Amino acid sequence: MYRRKIEETLLQWKEKKAHKPLVVKGCRQCGKTSSVMDFANKHYAHVVYLDFHEHREYKAFFAGALDVDTLTLNISVGVRGAKFVPNQTCLILDEIQDCPQARSSLKFFSLDGRYDVICTGSLLGVNGYRTKEEREDEVRASIPVGFEHVVTMYPMDFEEWLWANGIEQQHVDYLKDCLKNEVPVNEAIHHRMRELLLRYVVVGGMPEAVVAFLETNDMNEVVEVQQGIVETYKADMLKYALQEDKPRIRECFESIPAQLAKENKKFQYSTIRKGARSRQYQGSLQWIEDAGIIRRCYNTSITELPLNGNAIPDCFKVYMADIGLLVSMLEEGTAWSILQGDLKGYKGAIFENLAADILGKMGRKLYYFQKEGGLELDFLMRYKGECWPVECKATTGNAKSLQTVLRHPEHYHVANAIKLGDYNVGRDGSILTLPFYMAFLLTEV
User: Residue 49 CB: number of other CB atoms within 10 A?
Assistant: First the structure.
């Protein structure tokens, strides 16, 4: 097990007095089950594990009365080795979206308080996930509002990737000091971090892909894993979506590389299929977003806080939530080109998606600014209490739009900006230039 940030979240939850059952949601194969199981085995004398996806018969445990005594009796009889001891047992309900009645039972576990419950869910809330029978179950069931605590888990982020590669806290603290004091990073550390960044671009943060890379150092193995995950996502779209939505969801998903290849990266339904309209595909796009596979980045009407208040709902870009999966969807040899620094025109799209990956996995919502006439800022973010534009460069380069915005504070109300690229730390007037690998340190709001 590589170190994951969810471990600290789980520990804080356990140490909180009278904590509610925990629901950990996130896209498929981001490491939810392995992280929860590892935590439970470390901190509880007894762990009872139910996987509703693999063992649909477990749903029968929750088909009748939902009081805790009945449920624990049913489970202890039906699952070999299941042992319920007050304050010593953790019940793990994996893929809980497959058993709505189990989700309803969280209210009773919360009120009872004898056993800790941790749930995981991959497709919580996506439209059309249920079969007819499951939808009927869900009508009878209900989400136990007020009786559960929900957290979102993402694929490994860049900092977790650094930990997996042997970067220790003292090294991260050193980078934080360089950012705070705006001084260049030591050349040896700078070189190593640049190398790790490029590897992260091609590997991404899906745990199975990370393990494949670190154990074999074979990119063919990594790409095989990534493409397998992408195929799993496509299978989910065909299996669980509403019948009328299935082809449209897949078309939306497969259009993402082409959407990012455009000069104007605004998501356009006509890129999916000639003549396509938003009313035909907006539900399909929402399905993919709800499954945690993509992130939207909304255009704003002005470069001011609050960004969510100034967002334009029907004007957005779409990025893959994990950069490695995007690269695996491109033509064969792309990963090698990235590692060699030879990407030509598409490199801008890849490094924009890299920024979306890093910022999104920090829990930041994504925004950008574009207006007619060609002025465009890759991202806007709340940083140190102000609106800061963030420009992304695969290597180096000018940022004309950024310069325009900074020259006219009376109109754009922007005093500072960040330029991420193949730089060391430095400052040019109002522009703070940072190496791309420092993006994960931009946590201050």
Answer: 19
Tell the residue number behind the tokens 């806007």, with chain if given.
380
Strands 376-383 vs 89-94: parallel, antiparallel or unpaired? unpaired
Question: Residue 346 pLDDT > 90, yes or no?
Answer: no
3-state secondary structure of 381: strand
List the strands of the sheet with 294-300, edge to edge: 311-320, 294-300, 366-370, 376-383, 386-392, 417-421, 431-435, 426-428
Alpha-carbon span 238 to 248, nearest angstrom: 10
Cβ atoms 380, 364 nearer than 8 A: no
- Alpha-carbon Rg for the chain, nearest whole angstrom, is 23
Instruction: Give the model confidence (pLDDT) of 360-375 as tens digits.
Output: 999 999 999 999 878 9
Kindly give the pairing relationship between strand 386-392 and strand 376-383.
Answer: antiparallel
H-helix or E-strand spanning residue 357? helix 347-361
pLDDT in tens, 144-179: 889 999 999 999 999 999 999 999 999 999 999 999
Are residues 423 and 430 in contact, defined by beta-carbon separation less than 8 angstroms? Answer: no
C-alpha–C-alpha distance, residues 202 and 192, integer Å: 16
Q: Is the peptide bond before 306 cis (omega within 30 degrees of 0)?
A: yes
- CB count in 10 Å sphere of residue 19: 15
Amino acid, res. 137: D
Sheet holding 22-25, edge to edge: 46-51, 89-94, 116-121, 22-25, 149-152
**Separation between Cα atoms, residue 391 and residue 377, nearest integer Å:** 6
